[in-house]
């Protein structure tokens, strides 16, 4: 699970991330963004490993991945 | 794996078309500048071409040059300020047509600069005319029946051409058409900057890049064009390394 | 102490004295002594010399060197100056200082390597694209070439504009004893707040000449440039006047031609002819005032130049065509002799008597 976010207003809808995601975890949203362009969205954040291959292909720096969150069962204080 | 915008890139949304490779190459250059901690002593030269607005996106000193002249401008900058980092960022029309002379001589003088060469096989900014790197048979607005061997001649191969010059330090051809290629491209760009920091001379990284709009293709088809057509004509790899 | 140097070398030494630390050029006769001299003098003073692959490259190297903050110079002769026009337009648009020298030769085309003044229009009206102006200086002796070259760097920095030294093959090739006086600035030199040297401790800077949006931004840019050119016109006007007060005939000439014409004017005076001379030193801005003044009292003008008639247009403009302006000149490497000029003066004076 990774802290992945797609900034829909930076996205120009080129879909290169969709094709690159090894888990098929990115798709095109059904709506348009404020610039009137289609944009990509994450299907399931929990299914994202944070490999960042999508980020490598995004020409618009629309995808960001935050620091890895620890898995819920190993969260601090849970031991 | 964390992934954040490099501080060398401003937040401005680029004017590039969907699926254009310039955005990826910008990010790679900016990441390398960040990583090497050289933003505050770097001066970039903007070309005439789609990347002319480089200064709208890069958070460092930039000079916009006449079409094809960045290598000469970079020479002037670097000779006056040898301890600064100077890079050129040029398209194929800029670097390999109108600026061929400047490119060859700057390379051969071994100017201690870094050249980022974005090869998209077409003149992007002016609307998709034939470039020196247009593939044989590729149709463009000025080669509507496809580039022909007899009239237009075969595509010009910059890395191969410059590899014959003894003054050149490092030449590598990379691509940004798959994530794997992009990661490799970043390594090459990093090396080209490190060479300059270490005073090793002229480095050029040629990046095969997508121009789906002027190729009249979808972004996905654009990536396929680089992977299946361009890479055949412009094989990836290191063409020279004296570093 | 005076030393004997060729004009081309005098100009180089003046540049070095004025702190020029970057030179790029491409060989062309009759200015080859310039890159040759700079190739050893520049490194000796800690500057950079580059033999460029073309005049286009050389002027673009100046674009970079000037952006980096150096006093910089390039030189060439006519065909090479044509190639520099692209860069000159950009440098002017970007308002960067630099000094360019043209040791003119015969044209058009490859022409010949004799001295000429046929690039006057290109120099003062703008040989490149767009509305821009160069400050153009026309020295006529080597001591003056020495001083004006040093001044050129000051004007360039003061106005943030390229300055062109419009010489010719004779001026470049002749040798004359010159006192190499030390450099002292002739105008105040503003801090170079445009320099690209990395953005440490400040915001990144951009030097650019593209103005796309909003639609009228370039119009505004042009207005700012024009305002600067107007300011230069009102502040910078250099000329020499010889016996114009009571002159009935005014000879107008610049550069090496003026030097030749001076002899003819002296001869005319010795022969009792009321002849004076005006010699513009700044060719742009053109010194209109002495011409307007002379047009009130003198009866006619004679323009002598080594071209088919370019400089004469500015004389006619400056005198508002109030007096007849006759012409002695030819292009292609033709030189006037003092005798030929005196003969022309005599004929014009006789004609006045007859009228
Ligand atoms: C002297 C001159 N000639 C032509 C042009 C018009 N022009 C602008 S960009 C360009 C081609 C750019 O193509 P390339 O260098 O391949 O860059 P791209 O736009 O594809 O990134 C041309 C011909 C110009 N601006 N200046």
Q: Indicate the overall shape of chain A.
A: globular
Biggest sheet record of chain A: 2 strands, antiparallel
Please tell me how large the radius of gyration of chain A is: 14 Å
CATH class of the largest domain in chain C: Alpha Beta
Uncertain parts of chain C = none
Kindly name the structural category of chain C.
Answer: alpha/beta
For the largest interface in this structure, which chains are involved and how many residues does each contribute? B-C, 38 and 39 residues
Main-sheet strand order of chain C equals 3-2-4-5-7-6-13
Order of SSEs of chain A, N→C? EHEEHE
Strand order of the largest sheet of chain A: 1-4
Q: Which sequence of SSEs, written as H and E, runs from N to C of chain C?
A: EHEHEHEHEHEHEHEEHEEHEEHEHEH
Helix content of chain A: 10-25%
CATH architecture of the largest domain in chain C: 3-Layer(aba) Sandwich
Please tell me the overall pLDDT of chain C.
97
CATH topology of the largest domain in chain C: Rossmann fold
Q: How far apart, in Å, are the first and last alpha carbons of chain A?
A: 20 Å
Q: Specify the helix fraction band of chain C.
A: 40-55%
CATH topology description of chain A: Alpha-Beta Plaits
Most strands sheet of chain C = 7 strands, mixed
């Amino acid at each position: 699970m990774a802290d992945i976010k797609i900034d829909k207003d930076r996205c120009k809808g080129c879909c290169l991330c969709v094709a690159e995601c090894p888990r098929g975890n990115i798709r095109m949203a059904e709506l348009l963004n404020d610039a009137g362009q289609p944009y990509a969205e994450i299907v399931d954040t929990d299914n994202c490993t944070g490999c960042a291959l999508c980020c490598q292909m995004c020409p618009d720096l629309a995808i960001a991945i935050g620091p890895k969150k620890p898995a819920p069962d190993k969260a601090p204080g849970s031991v | 794996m964390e992934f954040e915008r490099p501080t060398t890139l401003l937040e401005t949304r680029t004017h590039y078309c969907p699926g254009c490779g310039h955005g990826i190459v910008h990010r790679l250059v900016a990441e390398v500048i960040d990583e090497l901690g050289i933003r505050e002593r770097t001066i970039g030269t903007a070309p005439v071409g789609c990347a002319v607005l480089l200064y709208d996106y890069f958070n460092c000193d930039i000079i916009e040059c006449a079409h094809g002249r960045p290598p000469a401008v970079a020479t002037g900058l670097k000779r006056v300020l040898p301890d600064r980092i100077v890079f050129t960022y040029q398209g194929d029309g800029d670097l390999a047509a109108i600026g061929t002379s400047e490119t060859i001589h700057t390379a051969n003088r071994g100017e201690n600069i870094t050249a980022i060469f974005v090869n998209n096989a077409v003149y992007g900014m002016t609307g998709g005319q034939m470039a020196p790197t247009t593939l044989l048979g590729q149709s463009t607005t000025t080669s509507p029946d496809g580039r022909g061997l007899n009239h237009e001649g075969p595509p010009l191969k910059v890395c191969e051409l410059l590899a014959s010059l003894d003054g050149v330090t490092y030449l590598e051809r990379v691509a940004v058409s798959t994530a794997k290629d992009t990661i490799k491209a970043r390594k090459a760009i990093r090396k080209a900057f490190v060479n300059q920091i270490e005073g090793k001379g002229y480095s050029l990284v040629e990046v095969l890049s997508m121009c789906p709009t002027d190729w009249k293709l979808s972004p996905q088809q654009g990536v396929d064009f680089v992977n299946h057509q361009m890479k055949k004509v412009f094989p990836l790899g290191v063409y020279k390394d004296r570093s | 102490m005076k030393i004997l140097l060729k004009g081309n070398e005098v100009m180089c030494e003046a540049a070095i004295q004025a702190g020029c630390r970057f030179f790029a050029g491409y060989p062309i006769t009759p200015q080859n002594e310039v890159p040759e001299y700079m190739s050893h003098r520049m490194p000796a003073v800690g500057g950079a010399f580059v033999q460029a692959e073309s005049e286009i490259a050389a002027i673009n190297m100046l674009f970079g060197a000037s952006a980096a903050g150096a006093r910089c110079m390039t030189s060439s002769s006519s065909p090479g100056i044509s190639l520099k026009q692209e860069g000159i337009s950009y440098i002017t648009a970007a308002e960067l200082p630099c000094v360019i020298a043209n040791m003119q030769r015969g044209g058009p085309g490859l022409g010949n390597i004799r001295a000429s003044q046929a690039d006057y229009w290109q120099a003062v009206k703008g040989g490149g694209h767009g509305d821009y102006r160069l400050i153009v200086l026309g020295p006529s002796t080597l001591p003056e070439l020495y001083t004006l070259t040093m001044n050129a760097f000051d004007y360039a920095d003061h106005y943030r504009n390229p300055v062109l030294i419009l010489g010719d093959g004779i001026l470049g090739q002749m040798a004359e004893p010159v006192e190499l006086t030390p450099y002292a600035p002739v105008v105040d030199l503003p801090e170079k707040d445009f320099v690209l040297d990395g953005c440490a401790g400040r915001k990144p800077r951009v030097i650019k000449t593209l103005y796309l949006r909003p639609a009228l931004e370039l119009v505004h840019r042009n207005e700012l440039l024009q305002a600067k050119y107007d300011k230069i016109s009102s502040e910078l006007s250099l000329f020499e006047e010889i016996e114009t007060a009571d002159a009935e005939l005014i000879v107008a000439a610049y550069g090496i031609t003026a030097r030749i014409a001076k002899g003819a004017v002296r001869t005319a005076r010795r022969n009792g002819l009321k002849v004076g001379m005006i010699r513009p030193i700044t060719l742009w801005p053109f010194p209109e005032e002495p011409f307007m003044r002379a047009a009130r009292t003198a009866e006619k003008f004679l323009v002598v130049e080594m071209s088919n008639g370019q400089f004469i247009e500015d004389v006619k403009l400056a005198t508002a065509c109030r007096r007849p302006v006759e012409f002695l000149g030819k292009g292609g490497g033709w030189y006037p002799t003092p005798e030929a000029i005196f003969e022309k003066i005599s004929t014009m004076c006789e004609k006045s008597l007859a009228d």
